[in-house]
Each structure stands twice: as C-alpha cells, then as structure tokens.
Amino acid sequence: MTRVLIMFDTTEGQTRKIAHAIGNRLGSSGIMADVFRAGDMEPALSAYAGIIVAGSVHAGRYQKRLLQWVRTHAPEFGTRPSAFVSVSLGTMQKEDAKAIAELRSIVERFCDAAGWKPMTVKHVAGALMYTQYNFVKRWLMKRISAKAGGATDTSRDYEYTDWNDLNAFADDFRRRVHCNVARRGQR
Predict the structure, then answer these.
(1) What's the CA angle centered on 82, arms 65 and 89, to 5 degrees?
(2) How many CA atoms lie within 13 A of 113 on its CB side?
(3) Cα angle at 12 between 20 and 148, to 5 degrees?
(4) pLDDT 10s digits, 106-138
C-alpha cells in the first residue's frame, strides 16, 4: 500500500487537526497516511511515497521543532512529491497584497532555512483560540483579527479552516503521489 508521511507541529492544536484531516482524506482514497508531530517520531522516509509538512505561523515564524526536523531530513525527500501546508490567519486577508506577500516571505524564509523547496505550498486559514490565550495574547490576537476583518468576541473560539479546500488539496496530492509511483514503476 502506498504511504504518505505528514509531519506537523502546532501551538494551539489547529495544525494537528488539519494534519489529521489531510491524513483521513488520503486514507479514504487508498493511501495510508502516518501523521506525526515533529520531534515525537523519527520515521524512515524511505517507506513513504510522499511527504507533507504542516506548521502554523506565530509571530512571523513556524515552530522551531518543525524547522529542525525539515532541516535534518530535507536531503532525504528526494524526488517524492512534497508539500508544505502553512497555517495562518493571514490567509484570510486575500485582498491585502501586503499581507499575502508577507506570508509568502515567511514561507520562503522557512524553506530557505530548512534547505527545502517543496513542490507545493498550501496556505490554510487556522483558528482563533481566544479561550486558550492568556490576557496579552488574547488582546493582541483581537487587534490582529479586527484589522483583518475577523471576529473580536473573545468569549469564544473561531475556526476559519476551509475543509472543502483542504480536501481538494489532499485529493491533488494523492494524484501527484499516484503519478509519481506509476512513473517510477515504469522505469
């Protein structure tokens, strides 16, 4: 059975939820997906036909453990299909060219620091977890959300992930993996 590795790291948990949703979608289409948090497992990359890395943006950067994992293992990715799933509330600001350029710059800095050029980058909106934030972070996130036209009621959490779009990404990645496996099988 074809297998895909999904390596993620998360701060409040939305990226974990996204990584598992991608894994479930791949699984429903006949691809076995192993989902691990960076630093928890060291899977043998040779067992995988594709690799997805997922991380969330906080204060302009991704989780350090994720960067360390990718930096260590990127040379092993080879010609397998690979994708980077960038989770950020900034993704909601589709009409703000400056915000979109900043997101691209954050992804580029991460990939450069890791020594990796993913075949696909997928930007996914995350969640506002107001009820999990301390006072300072809640205040800061409320300001950021207000600027982006998002929710400012801090008594509840908000999920902005477009699950249908995420399913379409997983379906596309599945096709890339199958094409790559078929191409390699013809050699």
Answers:
(1) 60
(2) 15
(3) 105
(4) 999 999 999 999 999 999 999 999 999 999 999
Structure tokens at 186: 């013809």
Letter for the amino acid at 13? Answer: G
Rg, C-alpha atoms of the chain = 17
Predicted confidence (pLDDT) per residue in 55-98, tens digit: 999 888 999 999 999 999 999 998 899 999 999 987 777 777 88
Structure tokens belonging to residue 122: 């997928």
Q: What is the pLDDT of residue 179?
A: 87
Which residues fall within 8 angstroms of residue 43, CB to CB, at 6 or more apart?
Answer: 5, 34, 36
Count of Cβ atoms closer than 10 Å to residue 114 Cβ? 21
Residue 176: helix, strand or coil by DSSP? helix
For the chain, where are the alpha helices, taking DSSP H only? 14-28, 64-77, 97-114, 135-147, 163-185
Strand partners, 5: 34, 51
pLDDT in tens, 139-183: 988 988 887 778 999 999 999 999 999 999 999 999 999 888 887
Q: Show the tokens assigned to 20.
A: 């598992």
C-alpha 86/C-alpha 74 separation (Å) is 17
Residue in 35, 33, 22 with CA at minimum distance from that of residue 169 = 22
Q: Torsion-angle region of residue 22: left (phi > 0), alpha (psi -120 to 50) or beta?
A: alpha
